[in-house]
From TrEMBL:
This is Structure-specific endonuclease subunit SLX1 isoform X3. Its main location: nucleus. GO terms for biological process: double-strand break repair via homologous recombination. The gene is SLX1A. GO terms for cellular component: Slx1-Slx4 complex.
Length: 243
């Protein structure tokens, strides 16, 4: 995939990052961590343990956050990813990844582990983004990330605020309510009440509107052993449509 950026979506941010030490005395050391605020977290690491940094990074700065993996659905999912990246030899999902080789730099080893993690379950099916915060540190991963995992470059875009309903006259509110009651899921025929709106087919000729879970279940009929679909054919009227 090519560079991908775009505006941030509303919702909480969960990321797992890689720090690189720029201190000549400790140059080459790396650190893997979890954060909900990358800019604040790297400041804490460089300020020391008393300011919220980790003991492994305290007094060894400056540290640079060179890449971050984000898009995790929850803090728990991100923390599990962090633990496995920190302890690949203890993770049963990474048993196929060999230990650090003699002469292999810590940075290169962590990238090698990351490459295999993005291709291993359950992470291979998550809607993750691999973002290089420092393009000069970028290296191609082997194996490469799955096709649905985009590469992004540069700082994270500003987080979008959660959508708020605009105040409107009572008559408009009633019209909106009447309109909502007429919107039904194409797949389950129940009323659509998703605050962020239903999923729609991108083709103008298709009228499909569906709950996220309904469309996921439809796509997973061909992959009954999975929890998250990666792609699927539109079940609407549009011939050959895909999402």
């Amino acid at each position: 995939m090519g560079p991908a950026g775009g505006e941030a979506r509303p919702g909480r941010f969960f990321g797992v990052y890689l720090l690189y030490c720029l201190n000549p005395r400790h140059r080459g050391r790396v650190y893997v961590g979890f954060t909900i605020n990358p800019a604040r977290r790297v400041q804490q690491h460089n300020a020391g343990r008393k300011k919220g940094g980790a003991w492994r990074t305290s007094g060894r700065g400056p540290w640079e956050m060179v890449l971050i993996v984000h898009g995790f659905p929850s803090a728990v999912a991100a923390l599990r990813f962090e633990w496995a990246w920190q302890h690949p030899q203890a993770s049963r999902r990474l048993a196929h990844v060999g230990p650090r080789l003699r002469g292999e730099a810590s940075f290169a080893f962590h990238l090698r582990v990351l490459a295999h993690m993005l291709r291993a379950p359950p992470w291979e099916r998550l809607p993750l983004t691999l973002r290089w915060l420092r393009a000069d540190f970028r290296q191609d991963l082997c194996p490469p990330p799955p096709p649905h995992v985009p590469l992004a470059f540069g700082p994270l875009p500003p987080r979008a605020p959660a959508p708020r309903r605009r105040a409107s006259p009572l008559v408009d509110t009633e019209k909106e309510r009447d309109h909502d009651t007429e919107a039904f899921c194409t797949l389950c025929a129940r009323v659509l009440q998703d605050e962020e709106g239903p999923l729609c087919c991108p083709h103008a000729g298709c009228s499909l509107r569906a709950h996220v879970i309904c469309l996921a279940e439809e796509f997973l009929q061909e992959e009954p052993g999975q929890l998250l679909p990666l792609e699927g054919q539109c079940p609407g009227a549009w011939p050959g449509g895909g999402l």
